[in-house]
Specification:
The chain is of the alpha+beta class and 715 residues long. 16% of the residues lie in helices and 37% in strands. The structure holds beta-D-galactopyranose (GAL).
Amino acid sequence: MLLAALLCAAWLALLAPSALAEGNGLAATPPMGWNDWYSEYCNVSAQLVEQTAREMVADGMAAAGYRYVNIDDCWMAPSRDSAGNLVPNPTRFPNGIAPVAAYVHSLGLKLGIYEDAGTATCAGLPGSFGHEAQDAATFASWGVDYVKYDRCNIPYGDFPGASQEQVDQTLFTRMSQALRATGRPILFSVCDPNPGVNAWTWGPSVANVWRTTADIEDNYGSMLANFEGTVDLYRSAGPGGWNDPDLLQIGNGGSTPTEYQSEFSLWAEMAAPLIASTDVADLSSAALAIYENENVIAVDQDPLGRPGVPIWSADGVWVLTKELSDGDRSVLLFNSTGTATTMTTSARAAGLRRARGYSLFNLWSGAVTETGGQISAFVPAHGVAMFRVVPQTRRQLAPLAPHTVLSLAAADSQIDAGATTTVSETFANQGTVSVKRLSLSLFAPRGWRVRRLGGARRVRLAAGRRFTVAYSVTAPAGGPALGLATLTGGASYDPVDGLDESSVDLGESVSVPVAGPFATADTTGQAASFGASDGSLAISASGLGVLPGFNGQPPVDTYAAVYEPGAAGLSSTAQVTVTSDPAGGSAGGAGLIERDQMTAPAGSAPAVALFVSANNTIEMAWNASGGPDVDTWLQVPNSYGPPPVTLRLVRDGSTFTGYFSTDRGASWKLVDTVTVAPSVSAGAQDVGAFHASGLDTWETTATFEDLLVNGAELR
Ligand code: GAL
């Protein structure tokens, strides 16, 4: 008995290594709330904060658990008062912060604020360095409940001999202690994603939340990068202190509903803070339904406070299991790839005890089914399946429907126009009873041909069995440069009594191949795709882009291109119209590129790139030194040019002149004339159109028209 008690205590201690380490008693479960940054940036105001708080009460978010209403950077005036106190910006917060806090409190919510450990915030406003105690006292006197503390402009020179991490740890600890000394319970959030700083190693002793990854962007690649950068840190988090992969972008428009659903599921499974950074007053009902999924929130907020553990990860598919306080498990199947796929794990692998069967509560569809032990789903590209799994010891009085999985797989996920591939459709019965009257079908869009290669019906399919039908599928000839067709598989069957139906979609990408003399090049890690048809061109690629490295980072040089080998002689002109450019990161974009050898890997002398960046500015990057990389860069000031933008690059020996036009060539603006090192630009070069998504975790499709090299046009 005593031994058992001792073992139990030791086990509990093991379970919660960081339990309440920060010691302020806050954040027993991950904080939930709102932050203005990704919808407003520097446009925060008292009016916005109060309106958002009202909205959160009205739309049900407050009731769903979103409690903190957080002000980010830019709330303060450019300087402190004569006594050194922080002053709220008089236009944004005309009556100061205290009345805003009081108003938010009157609605039953809590107020958060932002400061910085350095001499200035990231937006250049007064930082807390040297004022920690004073600022903490100010926040407490205003009624602040949450402080997000950032890491810009830290005066490292004042700490000779100390590493960046040591200085950061010192300064964040200073503010943590100052906040505690005020006597007001204030949740402390460390925002220190600087490369080389591992805030999760010291965060648990000073903070309730610590950032793990770079600022999130409103795109799938950035969300994925922040998931991947956080998922293995599950040992650092627990009640009182949580890993923070950054704010939720759900509702901001840069990702699909499937991708936003994944973001919410992944954050919940990792027990991350759920802080919505979007315009709450303008949320679509679909986005609100994601934010208010009480079953997924319950996983995030489970009182045991154990983040999900990855039990499988290969080729871009992830399986996570999260232990819950009542002995259930939340099992998350995440398909980060661009192709829908069948994913499988088992209840035992997910950590559940042995049982005769398990109920699977699908947290997004609401369906409850029973499995004999396998947990699988056909998971869409960039999507998740999320189940709460409960062991079933006795047969139910009203039996649950058997867990069945319908899936599609194509022999080639990418084919040429007019080509044929084989698609197989599989129906698996993972329940504990058989299903009857099974019938499968496959539908393709108009213009496609589908030939079934075998029988499509089964009178009875026993528990644990599967049934597969193959089809020969032919894409129409011609069509768009690069298209995505949806193939839909359907099943009808009798699970217990009465017919049931299910359907699944598989995307099949079809391209019209690029014809000579044009060729393709791909220096990204994932296979890019290309298509050209009727004067339009499409490049689907990941890749970081073509720019010198920032802040001491190495230069980036990964992209995919459609080009004409050796076509840019000493006197030549290339031109293209960029018609769409979905890109992110710091160097993503689409435009023209010239170099000695287009297929050369990164680190082999490039020449010049002229492109529309991820922020729609016109940029030019070139190799001025003759070194192994692009080393010089310019951005045309105020050149906000959302596509269509026509770019023209004129070569005269080692000199390259860039132009751009926002009226399809009716009028031109000069970008600049630049000189590329003669060693790089001595002979004829390869030239063409390129695209890089800006992140190597994300593939996007840029489109172009009228690629012209010396008057020869790609058709
Ligand atoms: C960044 C921080 C963002 C936001 C911004 C404000 O450094 O990571 O989350 O707070 O500063 O300037």
